[in-house]
Amino acid sequence: MEIRVLKYFLMAAREENITRAASLLHLTQPTLSRQLIQLEEELGVTLFLRSKHRIILTEEGMLLRRRAEEIVSLAEKTKEDFLRKQEELAGTIAIGSGELHSSAFLTQLITAFQKEHPLVCFTIYSGHSDNIKERLERGLLDIGLLQEPVDITKYSFVRTPIREQWGALMRSDSELAKKACVTPSDLAGMPLILPERENLQNELRNWFGSYGENLRIIASGNLLYNLASLARDSGGCVLTLRLDCTYEGLRFVPFSPGIETGTVLVWKKAETFSPATAAFIEYAKEYISGITQNLV
Fold first, then answer.
1. Which tens digits make up the pLDDT trace of 104-127?
2. CATH among 1.10.287.500, 3.60.15.10, 3.40.50.10260, 3.40.190.10 for 164-261
3. What is the pTM of this model?
């Protein structure tokens, strides 16, 4: 029995009409009829009860249909498996990331992965953890790099080895900019610019302790470039993370006592991902595990 002939048989069994089945298979009606008769002769059984306008499976025909479906399905899966091994991994992976020190780690991870899989492309969305999570839920992103504290109970994740350091970004000509670090009392009377996320604002208020009730907050936002411009013009202080970038006329001064937070790479639990995304997730796990082991 040939796989090709079994596919002909299954089409005829499904349509219960030789002419219609032949048309769908792009064969002539006599050609299909001849193939089916030869199959019956090969097996030594009658597969169809034939009438003028319809064909119906015999008991032997129903048995062959079950077996043929299994054989054809296995043959197609085997072919796909071999093709997948031969083909280069390709596709697009959508990742969301905040403005983080860990973003440099993410780009290193992406670059290392692309060296092995050059046909994989990435789209990177910039935002804070809350709107990245929203896009993950809507299926607009495959993976997110989130800043803690953040609720990740709905996600699978790996924690990155990078720690984020908090401090204040202020004008270089400020008296506070001359200090090695700034305390809650130093900043209590200053015009402050806070991150947009409410849970981060709460963390910062806790750091201020008794000074946290009467802070002078002049703005909040999620993109540091805009907030830095406001700080330069207003003389305010942006409470933010240390980043690998500089802003003209501004200086970053770390907090004392210091605040450090972590970041996590997350993806939805029980999600069916594209081969490229699934491969990247496994690569990220191994990549981070290797770094963590080297740090021990």
1. 999 999 999 999 999 999 999 998
2. 3.40.190.10
3. 0.64
